[in-house]
Amino acid sequence: MAIRDSFWTKYLHNLDYYETSSMQRLIDWAGAEEDKFYLSDDSRLLAAKALSWLLTSTNIKLRDSATKSLANLLKNSIKTITALIDSFKDVNDPYVLERILAASYGAVLNSVTLDDLDKLSENIVATIFEAKEVYPNVLVRDYARNIIEYALYKKVYQMDNVDIIRPPYRSDFPTTFPTNEEIDAYKYDYNAADFKDYYWGQNTILSSMVTEYGRGICSYGDFGRYTFQSALSGWCDFDPNDLSNYACKLIFEKYGYDVEKHGQFDRYASEGDRSRNKKERIGKKYQWIALYEVLARIADNHQVVEGGSLWSESKNYVWFQGPWELFVRKIDPTTPSYSKEIIRQKSFWNNENPYNDWDSTINDWLKREANLPDPLELISVLSADDKKYLLLDGFFTWDEPLPLGEDEYGYAKKTPLVSY
Q1: pTM greater than 0.70 (yes/no)
Q2: What is the pLDDT at residue 346?
Q3: Is the peptide bond prior to 168 cis by the omega test (within 30 degrees of 0)?
Q4: Can you tell me the distance from the alpha carbon of 96 to that of 109, in angstroms, rounded to the nearest whole number?
Q5: Which of 288, 247, 258 has the alpha carbon at shortest distance from 6?
Q6: Residues linked to residue 397 through DSSP beta bridges, in sequence order
Q7: Which helix (H) or strand (E) holds 80?
Q8: How far is CA 86 from CA 8, 103, 123, 322, in A?
């Protein structure tokens, strides 16, 4: 995973800015509502595999849209889902398997025909739930379980031991945890003469993972306190700092975060995106994966305090049932697939001043002045009750309709724009 992220995930990072990229075209095509009945099983599987490799991405918009499009592509093709899971079951990136199963769940719930759902369920039971250690990721388990639960609900699949797909599952959980000194040894000294700018990527993971009192008062990281510690607060018999240190060890020793491979990218991955939080570091990806693994392992081995008794003297301990209890799901794969359509709010006035001068070539169209919209008509507006208004601030744009037979991505469309 760490090697793949060092080149492939980096490459994917800014693809949503380029609507003509081959991958964006694939997302748009797969997410379109049109029935893809014309696809052979092999072609559908190949397209699904291509979409699945986009799921490594730390670009949230790209990853979410690829997930939705994959769900749409797999709808009414459950046999393809089984083949896809078989192809990716050994890929060592939980981000990929999580979203493949999420898309599969969305596809199953939106399928009219449930042919082969029994075989898919049987495959998931064997791959995930009958393994010596059930895949240690709380979201992977959740989507896998829900596919089978739906098959049971629809009575297309039967199980002798349904408890095998329901928590708690089989996994190990440590009895001792790394110390602060062990984890802090990963930190680079900002004041050292040999400190390199990209070392910031590794230090950011460490500071971000600090829980509320993990390194004293007011030294916590936002992720450590408000995301990681919050999700694990029901296991109040454990020190959240110990769990955070355990997660950091997973990030560096199991997942293989390497500042030489990922540090330079992480230094600038979120640049210009802090307010939207749509693009994340590779280190942040590993933080999410660590959270989902720690949740899975602790839930398998220790009961959680029921929410209503968390602050009472007599606590009620129960087994954790699923990630919906902690609000850690990040996408609903059952909703309609990704759409590029821009929804514009209609103005309250009735003189919309339609523009329809699209017949000339682009060069002639750019030089002509006679076809420009009349500013006086744009600022003089009439409400539905025939009251006259003067528009003091406005922005108008018209998009040329796509001519019949032209490719959406290859045709240079004309777009006049007026603002004041």
Answers
A1: yes
A2: 56
A3: yes
A4: 20
A5: 258
A6: 417
A7: helix 78-88
A8: 22, 15, 8, 24
Closest CA to 20 of 417, 412, 288, 415: 412
Crossing angle, helix 78-88 and helix 41-52, to 10 degrees? Answer: 50
* Both structure tokens of 164: 């095998």
> Which pLDDT band, with edges at 50, 70 and 90, does 342 fall under?
very low
Structure-token match 């839930």, residue found: 299
pLDDT above 70: residue 199:
yes
Three-state DSSP at 383 gives: strand
- Residue 363's Cβ-count burial label (10 Å; 0-12, 13-18, 19+) is exposed
Q: What is the phi-psi region of residue 149: left when phi exceeds 0, alpha when psi lies from -120 to 50, beta otherwise?
A: alpha
The conformation of residue 161, written as its DSSP 8-state character, comes to -
Structure tokens, 183: 């984890």
Task: Delimit the domains of the chain by residue range.
Answer: 2-165, 180-320, 362-419
Give the whole-angstrom CA distance, residue 337 versus residue 102: 13
User: Would the pLDDT of 345 be above 60?
Assistant: no
> Tokens representing 237?
């018999």
Section 13-39 average pLDDT: 84
Nearest to 95 by CA among 340, 285, 328, 321: 285
Please report the pLDDT score of residue 343 as a whole number.
46
Angle 378-383-386 from CA coordinates, rounded to 5°: 115
Q: 105: pLDDT confidence band, cut at 50, 70 and 90?
A: very high
Determine if the peptide bond prior to 354 is cis (ω within 30°): no
